[in-house]
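Below: protein 1.
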Amino acid sequence: MVISSEQPFAHQAAESGTAPDLQCRILVVDDDTALRRSLPIALAQPGRHFDCCASIAETLRQLEHNSYDLILLDYRLPDGTGLDVLSWLAASQRQEAVVMISGEDAIDAAIGALRAGADDFVRKPYHLAQLQRTVHGALHKTALERANRTMSERLRASERLHRYLVESSPDLIFTLDGEGCFTYINPRIESLLGFRGNQLLKRPFLLLVMPEDQDRMHSLLQDVRNGHSERFEVELRLRRNRLSLDQGLPETVTVALDGLPMPGRGDEGARSPGLYGVARDISDRKRAEEIITHQAYHDQLTGLPNRLLFRDRLELAVTHAQRQNSPLAVMFVDIDRFKLVNDTWGHAAGDTLLRTLAERVSGVLRRGDTLARLGGDEFTILLPDISQPQDAETIARKILDVLAAPFALGNGEFRATVSIGIAIHPRDGHSAEDLSRHADVAMYKVKRSGKNGFRFFDAGLNAHHRQRVSLENDLHKALERQEFELHYQPQISLNHRRAVGMEALLRWNHPTRGMVPPATFVPVAEEMGIIGDISQWVLERACAQLGEWRSAGHDTLRMSLNLSPHDFDHHDLVDKVMAAVTRHHIPPALLEVEITESMMMQDADATATKVRELRSAGLGVAIDDFGTGYSSLSYLQKFPVSCLKIDRSFVRELSASAVNPIISAITGIARGFGLHLVAEGVEQEGQVSVLRSLGCDIMQGYLFARPAPAAEIERWLNTQPLPAAPG
């Protein structure tokens, strides 16, 4: 008869420290029905659950499906004895506690039961208190044994786990005795350093430490031995076993050692701590750190020091030079026309040029000199411990000489030149920043003076450089602040006795400098790359002004304006000009774009294409300052221009008694090509007479009107004095 089917939890109760028979399960085996009913009642306590069986067969069936904390087993049963149940339990390696209950008087029954595995024997008749004590003791013993087995299993599992972790760890794990000798070392030693573990047992750990790290490690072990140290971390280099080294492996391994003192006892009973050690291979990390450090301080393309490392070396050299009262030199080197290489052959060719140039320059420097790449095509050189400034000049000349040979760039040869600026300490500065800046200023002076050379810094260069920087800063804001103005100078036709055109002339009305001439600021704007914005402003303002004058009745007036050579580099030049003409309702024939002879000769094919597009759109194109350049008549055939402008330098030399042959030639060329002709810089009546006699009808100059703002020119247009009619 089954009283309860709940599972036992006696082992949990024992572990938790509560009553040992809390939540336990008891099987009562007896053929006496009264006992099967009374025992559960007599032994009942909270947490105890009872099942009952009347025979061995029923008991075994019950045990096959359930487990119990205690079996109260009657010795005599209808189909056998309780010894049969004990035999089954032993054969099945069951852990149930058994209390045998028997009415047998012979001692042999008790002895047999105990030998067969029973935990206790109770003889009938028995006192209830005696049975209760026996059951309680058996359950308590069962709980303790089960807790002990659980703890032992956990300990064995933990030991297996930790042994597995230690022996399969990628780290080197070891223990040292008080003398610093190995007492244990895991198998990682063989793959890491090439030693077998038994080779190192009882041998000093310091045998593995590289000589340069031994003193440091010896001090740490001594502190551990004296009890002055707790846990420590240190980086060491350990040597590999040379006899087992694979080819290509380095002789040392860098490890991060984590050491923890462990208690020990010496031969005389005094404390002699040993050491737990875990050493992790950080060789790859150290190599990665070295690579990262190298990349942080070196240029990846050339392998040269970069700006940061050069600055560190320069500051150190300046400090040394100040102590020794000795000079040093800083060079700033910039490759001339480097953009041409990238634009012509691509950046791969540019990289090849940079690497090859760095190799050549490095070859002419001394051992203690430093060549660095700042970026792009800029290099710097540090020349410490020079005896005189002429030594820097000698190096500069060697650099220019070594670069004289052409560079093979795959697609062709390129002759590279450089501009070199030199600053000398202490003459040109007492700090790394001043020396670098002054060498840079000197280099830019070489750039503007024709390139391919060197120059020493002087104070005048610095003042000029500061003025240049100030001019650049102001020029950036000039458009925004509306500081630009257009002045206009009339172009007079003697035959028609009136102004037939206006030349728009750009002026910069600086708030503190006053009127800045174009010759001063236009080249700077071209270098800064803002000339395109300025040209667009000139185009818009000139067209707008011409539109206003046309509305006022001057509908045949032409407008001439100058564009920068850089404007012709843009593919949309013609579209921008035509957009302005259309926007202000101006016939294209009334707008004339002026170009120079030098522009014709630079990238002639591309410029000629733009000129043809302008002419096809109906616009006029004039060659300004004609005759001052080196163009030939073939250029006039290639460039379909509409007008030639005689330069003022030729007009200035005219006199009534002598005719300038150049002007005669220019007027003949204009007639031969069917071009308009305009003479600039006319200031005297005699010049008018000669130009008129040569067939030049349109003139401009101070004799007729000076360049002036639009308001003044408009008043002039309404009241202009008519020139004398041709004789």
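Below: protein 2.
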Amino acid sequence: MELLPLVVVIAGIFILRGYNQRIKRLEVRVQELQNAIAGKVLPADVAESAPAEKPQTSAALLHAEHDDGAAIAEAAIPSPSPVDIEEADIAARDMADTFTDGGPDITAPAAMKPKESLESTIGARWAVWVGGIALALGGIFMIKYSIESGLLSPGVRLVLAAIFGLILVAAGEVIRRRSAPVSGNAFQNAMVPGVLTAAGVVALFGSTYAAHGIYGFIGPATAFVLLALISLATLALSLLHGQALAGLGLLASMVTPALIASTAPRPWILFGYLVLTWLATLLASRLRRWLIAPSLANALLSLWPLLYISYSPVVDFTPVTLSMLAMIGGTIFLWPGRYQTAAKAVDHATTETKANPLQLRSAGGGGAFLARAPLGMTLTATIGALAVALSLLADGLLYGYPIVDAVFMFAAIVAAVAAFGAGRLHAAWAAILSAVVAIIGMFGLLTNWIYGLDPGTVDALARMQSMVIYEALGLGAIFVLIGAFFLRRFAEGEKPFAALWSLIMAAVPLAIATISFFNFGNWTVDWLHGLYGIGLAVALLALAEWQYRRSGDGWNLPTNILAAGSFAATVFALHVLAHHAVPTILLPVLGIAYLLTGRVRDWPVLPWAMVAALIVAMARIAWQPTIVDPSELGTTPVFNMLLAGYGIPAALAAVAAFMVRRAPNIRLCSALQALASFLVLLTIAILVRHAMNGGVLNDAVPTLGEQSIYTLLAIGASATLMALDLSAASPVFRYGSMALGTLSVIMILTLHLLGLNPFITGESTGRIPLFNLLLLGYLLPAIAYGGLALLARNRRPLPYVAMLAVAGAVMVFAWATLTVRRFWQGEYIPFWNDFIQGELYSYSVVWLLIGIALLGLGARFEARSLRIASAVLVFIAVVKAFLIDMANLEGFLRALSFIGLGAVLIGIGLFYQKILTRKKATE
């Protein structure tokens, strides 16, 4: 049984020799196919990447011109056999997705892989895999048997295991030299030489570890060196046996430090060895154009710092940082290096055709750059490095590590990943994730770092705080520099990617500066953050101008994003350099400046900066309605800081709306018109509020007098917007006027007639009989509604006009009714006071007079709504006469009430008969 593995190996060798003749015939046939393609040769980079002993195959078809190549191939190969077609497809797949140092070209993807038969899967692949496992298990069982039987000493067993491993490695090399390249490529994930070599490596690695970890024959240093040499040798052998062996060697290399126990771990040696192993894997992957092995190497190299930071009592951050910088640097410059899409094939290729099956399909879409290969290598390097950077920062906050150094190392790693995202077109995720981690890291740092420190003096804390702020702001500035580098190199050819970097350049430094200011800034005047914001605004605006001059297109997306970023940075600087009313007043001034700049540069974003400035100004007003500190506001009506804080933005909004009145952008015109209208109305309303409350702005419920002014303002604003719409048609003016009219009607129904009615609240109506609160609260709004309805007639929808007319009639009715009650009750007219007989009779008279007046107005203006309102009012008078007057009035007043009611009803009937007769005569 002990000799069984050796017998299997020898039998395999003899079996493979039986296929040598057939393989040689296939090689001759492939050479003939190569010669049939006249004038077509492999590029230099592809020839170098192919094995030295492998002749040029029909993979040259990939680099031939599509139409000519197809025609030549059809003429040269009239009837290829199935075996020839399979071998040509194998060679084509082997040449796809190649890279070169400093600018690898990507050839067209390979033809579709033929479906593998079950016989081939079982016989050529599974047999190899199971055989390799069997060899490894055989060696293990042989050692186990010798231990249980006590046949051999431990030293002899280890030597025999090592010899067995060397025999397997040698057998793999012998078979590799005798195997054909085509066969190796056809079953490259199940190559017999590679499986034998892998089994031998496992035996060597296991025997070496057992010599140290189980029997103690060798010390930690010797064991570490031997295991490292075995691992690196395995990586070297992977150049001959394939990517799977490289993965095995990489895994062994990365596990080696964990297997060797050390009482005094040395992080510099540890991470130096890990970087050396990673570099060896990267170089091997570059030579053989592998993608999986380097991705695994990135993941394992990133895992070690996380374990080291989590479980080491004392952490040295420097070797950890340098290892991550080495990983990012190697990914940028060594492999995959610069990734190019051949002639923009990903974005502009046509679909596959029958005559040319090797054409690239178009990736399509503006976000296609996010999925560019090699995506696995990009994500493993990016996520691994950024995870380590966050761990450095978190450990520094948790254990009080010198925070300045921790922030510096965090910034170095993040900046390196950002540089990766700017230097390579396939590294879009590096740009995105570095920006996100920079903001998250600085937020966590600047909001929590002080709690993990215990400085000896206040001065030390202040100096440390300043250094941390400088480092945070410096990281934001680095993103601007890196983004400028990307725009300089790739802006013209990579517009979606350039737009992404433009957004990152504006968002990251501004977000970091905002976080820093909110946590450590001087809220009165902060020159550090203010100058930083001004510098950022100038830099972004200069870059926008530079982009515009390079492209000559004002609609260029990066240009507009940078210009918007400069506006946001200026707004930030304005807030940190001023306080109270100054930013609120200067924001619209800043918007006007960008609006005027839009006349020099046709960038669509510039006029919209005025809209943004007004919105920010209104947000400030909502945050501090008094504009200044309430104690500084004063009680002088109108002429106070409210006039400046509300009035200047409103005036500038009106100016901006006038400036763009003829602009082709309808949305911009409408937005500015709406904002101007709202701010003007808000200014007047707030001044009224201040004046009506004795110079105090609070959340107290307004009185009827104050609310009446608001209602009159809404009616007046509705009329103003209607007039503006008649002079310059605008949907904002049209629908805004109707919205304000409807809002005012809602106010009278809910507040004038119910919530603030003196009949319900008992509020004083004033001492003067006619010019009192009832005049302001009811009669003036009624007159205003009448004028607004007259203005809207034939200019607005009929239901809207009818609503205004009825609202005016209701307000007249309320004014007359309450005025009658005040005449009989005096200054206070609450409902809990009893009614007087003369008061009840007066209601009937007044209501009938109002009904007659409304009937006359309805007939005069042909307003059916007024005639209906008259009928309703007369009906109310009739009901009152029969239900209330009959029960409460006595003597002469009762008779006079019914006599007057009858006369009025008869008169109304005659009036309607006359109208109907006139209409029939006209018809």
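The chain has a mean pLDDT of 76.
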